[in-house]
Queue: 3 jobs
Job 1
Amino acid sequence: MLGVAFSIGVLLALAGSTVAHNCVASYHVVSKMLQQLEDSVKPGEPPNPSVLLAMNLAGAPNSSVQNQLLQEIEKEAVKRAQKDMTSGEVALYVLALNSSCKDPRHVQAMGKSIDLISILQEKTDEEVASLVMKGVPKTTLYSVSLDALSLCLTKAGGYQAPSVILAKWVLSPDSHLDVDTRAVAAMAMACAYSHTDLRDVRELLLKALRNVTNGFLDEQEKGHGMIGNIYSTGLALQALQATGKFYAPREWDCAQAFSVVYKHDYQLSMAIAQVLPALAGRSYLDVVSPGCVKTSMYPSLQPSLSPNPGTTGVHKAPTIEVHYSIINKLQGKHFSYTTSVQVPSGSTLLKVLQAAEAEKPKIFSFQTEQTSWGPMVVSIHGLAANSNDRTYWQFLSGGKPLQEGVGTYKPHDGEHIEAIFSTY
Ligand code: B12
């Protein structure tokens, strides 16, 4: 557990309670999540810049884990940024380095030095060119939002064009952007708004920001605290933390939104990393350059010596039956296969896919790739997702898309899961 060095005033006001005070969660909640993030950092695994960013925004003490993560991030950037990273990944690396007071223009590792800002500018220009020529970004509008946000926060050029494009998408009645994308776009547009003098651009950004933030407040009211789903709510809360002036004089009932988040037991470090800044009263907009992170509401949190909870005894779970279909009506030779497998109750969907593959390997073969959200299914029955033609394997239950991936989702007895080759 992280604990102890907490100023008496804040401690008295917050400790022991899970109620939001001025849109800041209790110390208990924040320190538990920080501990979960710390525990997620494993040597030898690809570093996650969102985790470092969240730790810094939540005011984590400068621990050896953070330093180790920072070094891995610098190494990974030098190794992969130019050739293998998407624009959004580079943007997250820039935010993480900035939040650790490191200059992204001079990232040094393994005897080499790279300028991550120029790389980000180049990759953002490619996204903008694709949007202008083809009407879709090279990757996704979520990544373009991260690009614009990151360039704007580092006061580098190249954020205005993507911010204007994002504003137009937000305002277009048929664009249907998901909550996650609107949230990051709102943070990017809020940054661009405060750094531009052009009247037309400011007016457009203002309109888009009012649209997104009021839309979130409406969705929260309808969803009794939830904005989108439990995983998008964190980013929406960050956006609402940072954009108060765009929905004023309307008030935000942050306690209602926080209470939904408190009830959920987030397990994935990526999910925690997106919600934690908001619970600590911060957002990605608090990464400032130069200057790292704006002063925290929380004084430094210090690690205590409490041991990790031990593992409990293993019980043999009863088995459940899950029906599983794979369907391609999109590309090449169409196919549709269904099977039923028995797995121990409480198994993840990944276990179902593995059981199906073990029983009928010629039909239900599949491949995954490790990502920041866990294993992503990238190929089934030899048919691979492809970012150039914007295809992916979508997972549904009862016709509705799952809100979790195969590594987390736990099907129930008799459930029918479909994997459908789709476009995004
Ligand atoms: C864009 C996006 C997608 C795109 C990615 C396309 C691309 N090539 O970029 C597509 C449409 C393919 C996609 C698919 C899915 N997604 Co998605 N996606 C996002 C979104 C909006 C942004 C991700 C991103 O670009 N990050 C920025 C880049 C720089 O970081 P990155 O680490 O390189 O991003 C990669 C991973 O995020 C990965 N990815 C995207 N979604 C998912 C979902 C899972 C479960 C996994 C393991 C990986 C993964 O693809 C990105 C590009 O390679 C996030 C929102 C969020 N809050 O993060 C949801 C989000 C991550 N997705 C989610 C879900 C549920 C899915 C699906 C399971 C939906 C479904 N019912 O099928 C599928 C994955 C199924 C599978 N095959 O395993 C959830 C995950 C929640 C959770 N607890 O696991 C999120 C948080 C949205 C939400 N609020 O519900 N997604």
Job 2
Amino acid sequence: MKIVHHPERLEELPTPSQTEPWRILISGCMAGWGCGVDGTDYGMKHALADFQGLGTAQLLPYCPEDVGLGTPRTMPDLHGGDGFGVLDGSARVLDEHGGDLTEGMLAGARAMVAFARENKVQLAILTDMSGACGTQVISDGCRFDEPRRYRRGMGVAAAMLVREGFPVVSSRDFATLGKIRAHLDSTFEPDPKALDHHQQPWVIENLPES
Ligand code: SF4
């Protein structure tokens, strides 16, 4: 489930400590891994380094596309639906050449869920807009098409994590990330003006809820 729609899930977690840190699954590129389609981290470096330094969070990076498709790779985007559609067989993952990457994306998603289970993950923070890790917004069809199209929805791995009961947060859910940081560090005061991705004006204006 998306934490932004179920904030009570955060309150249900035990208080994190140095000896019992929250176990948080994160997208590999958010840890600075060179696991992007082009072998880079998309410039993210270590996006959650401040969480890591607190000692109350154990960050567990994983890249489902690297596992399912390898790196470098062609660009996997969702066609005909979102990640849930792929899980249900009504949508496919195609690359920019029309190649069908659906099976590799499903294999990577299954491996990510197994990793989450093995590591008793309590929460996942994933890179939004990705065909695998997208959590609030994804590309609608090939992202190299002009103009690029977007839709609300989740990528394949994010959808499988949600369906398996793992709470998921987007890298662009800034309000929720502030709340998580406040759980990890009692001295931290979240920005009351921060917004989650679905609350951003561009999303509200351009991507109506279906
Ligand atoms: S699949 Fe996820 S972890 Fe891998 S590069 Fe894409 S967004 Fe990052």
Job 3
Amino acid sequence: MAVVRVDEDLCTGCGVCADMCPDVFEMEDELAKVKVEEVEGDLLESVKEAAESCPVEAIIVEE
Ligand code: SF4
């Protein structure tokens, strides 16, 4: 299990995370929001891929 957060000071609102993992990320007021803070299993893998794809490394995954 891991806890997911988005650093709103870093997020540019590019939308990549919400496209890659819409179960966890959504766009709101041009910033990414976390819909589900605690993830595990396949969802966690999807979150990690989104985090690696974030151009400004704004997605924080704490395991
Ligand atoms: S991928 Fe990163 S910069 Fe883009 S919306 Fe998501 S958190 Fe923000």
